[in-house]
Amino acid sequence: MGKPTLANTPRRSPMRASTLIGIGVLALTAMGIVYLRANGTESVWVVTRDVPAYHQVRQLDLSMEDVPRTSVPNDALTDEDAILGKYTVQSMSRGDPITRGALGPAQIGAVVDGLSLVALPATLPQVLNGELRRGDTIELLFASRIDGQAVSIPGVSVIDVRRAERAYTLTVGLSDDQLADFRTADWQDWSAVRSEPYASP
After folding, report:
1. Paired strand residues for 138
2. How far apart are CA 172 and CA 179, in angstroms?
3. Around 161, how many Cα atoms within 13 Å sit in the side-chain half-sphere?
């Protein structure tokens, strides 16, 4: 059997070579997209300095920054209105993304008909799957931060229900006695029961 020579060596088709190059480019592009999705950045609000627990968040505490996506918690907040005025329930270090779980409700400060307005960050189930309405009367159910016992606050007036970017904000009106009970509650796990729907006069 003779040795192969240049004359009888099979040549690679130019079309086949260009096809292989095209497939390689597509594969590299797909890998790049996957890499960027897994390792890109996301714009979230972070704290600009170390803040203690029970600190009311102000504008100067916030900065919108691009954070590696792998470092962004699932409940990181991108809506400034969902952050300002609330206070932290844990200490935070400079550069930490601000999460829903790190914030307690905001006491807005206004008093309407003798009721102090308080804003609670809420999930869809906590606003009764979107059925809770302004003017409803509800019972708030919490666990006490002090001893873990159940805390019930009946007769709470719903002032407003608003949808933020990733959650809801429930604003309620509390009497002085209700507010005293509310301050002992663990706001990370609460529920509401509608005791009386709003009736138009």
Report:
1. 156, 194
2. 11
3. 20
3-state secondary structure of 24: helix
Q: 168 forms bridges with which residues in the sheet?
A: 122, 163
Mean pLDDT, the chain, rounded, equals 79
Residue 88: what are its φ and ψ, rounded to 5°?
Answer: -75, 145
Among residues 21, 94, 103, the alpha carbon closest in space to that of 57 is found at: 103
Query: Looking at the chain, which runs of residues are DSSP E strands?
Result: 41-47, 62-68, 106-112, 115-122, 137-144, 150-163, 168-174, 185-196
Determine the Cα–Cα distance for residues 182 and 125; give it in Å rounded to an integer.
20
Q: Using one digit for the tens of pLDDT, what is the confidence trace for 139-195? A: 999 888 788 888 899 999 998 888 765 678 888 999 999 988 888 887 778 899 998
Bridge partners of 62, per DSSP, are: 47
Whole-model pTM over 0.70 = no
**Residues in the chain, how many?**
201
Record the tokens describing residue 84, joined without a space.
């300002």
- 88 contacts: CB under 8 Å, gap ≥ 6: 51, 52, 53, 54, 55, 57, 102, 103, 104
CATH number of 41-101: 3.90.1210.10
* Closest to 60 (Cα-Cα) out of 48, 43, 77: 48
